[in-house]
Design a protein that fits this description.
cell wall biogenesis/degradation, membrane, 7-stranded mixed sheet, VAS1/VOA1_TM, 7 strands, Big1, transmembrane, about 250 residues, alpha/beta
Length: about 250
């Protein structure tokens, strides 16, 4: 019973490890209320995420900001270096957090589809940081964060959100995920290697070097035979020496 429980726990832990590998988180927040609908889950596939985002981004916002942070993992958001990003999400009127998206999300293609769906102008903030100021009407902004520290990335997010807030006030939606999976370090479990025995300088010869005549098993067998066999034989002989009485004793008054 205990072995079965341990095996179940081991399989469960292996399943959890495989479940978080090759995943990226997805965040969405807005100063206005929105309904997560089909995105209210912890694990989701990329296809289901695209369908859910298509329902979430219903073109009711004047601006949709799509942020791409390559090699982002849910473990990165649980560390102390992303407090600014946490404040952005937790301080919003509506927010959505999916820790595990099974695969990388093509956020640039997602931004293009949203711009076509909402008939909005697609703005690539990576090419021109001031392109948003000249846009008239609804827009979908795509921003890919460059490599750097967590504070630098959070400051870049705050800057682009400040530009959007200045132009559209609180009428915007932010979609945050990763287009490149972070490779987690692989742990290899191997048997403990014993130190190698030094090679003999001279190859021994003779029958006693090729055959084993005395070993630990043979010694234990002889030891048990010397102790147990005499005791057993003595007990057998004592039992055999017991004789049945030839007559009954007289009854004494």
């Amino acid at each position: 019973m205990r072995a079965t429980v341990l095996l179940s726990l081991l399989l469960a832990s292996l399943y959890e490890v495989s479940a978080v590998e090759n995943t990226s988180p997805f965040l969405a927040w807005s100063p206005q209320e929105f309904s997560p609908r089909s995105l209210d889950t912890q694990v989701i596939s990329v296809q289901d995420l695209h369908e859910g985002v298509n329902d979430l981004a219903d073109c009711s916002h004047k601006a949709i900001l799509v942020i791409d942070e390559p090699e982002l993992h849910s473990d990165d958001l649980g560390r102390g270096g992303r407090n600014k990003l946490k404040n952005q999400v937790q301080g919003a009127e509506s927010s959505l957090q999916i820790p595990f998206v099974n695969g990388a999300v093509d956020l640039e293609t997602l931004a293009e589809r949203l711009s076509q769906k909402c008939h909005a102008v697609l703005v690539n903030a990576n090419v021109d940081s001031d392109a948003l100021s000249s846009v008239e009407g609804p827009s979908v902004i795509y921003k890919k964060l460059s490599a750097g520290s967590a504070d630098e990335k959070d400051e870049a997010v705050e800057d682009i959100i400040a530009q959007i807030h200045k132009k559209y006030q609180d009428d915007y939606l932010v979609l945050y995920s990763s287009s490149q999976i972070k490779e987690l370090p692989t742990r290899h479990f191997s048997a403990r290697q014993l130190p190698e025995e030094p090679a003999p300088t001279k190859t021994p010869s003779g029958i006693f070097h090729h055959y084993t005549f005395f070993s630990q098993g043979i010694f234990m067998g002889l030891l048990i035979a010397i102790i147990v066999v005499p005791i057993a034989m003595m007990g057998i002989f004592w039992n055999l020496s017991v004789q049945q009485p030839q007559r009954f004793e007289k009854k004494q008054n």
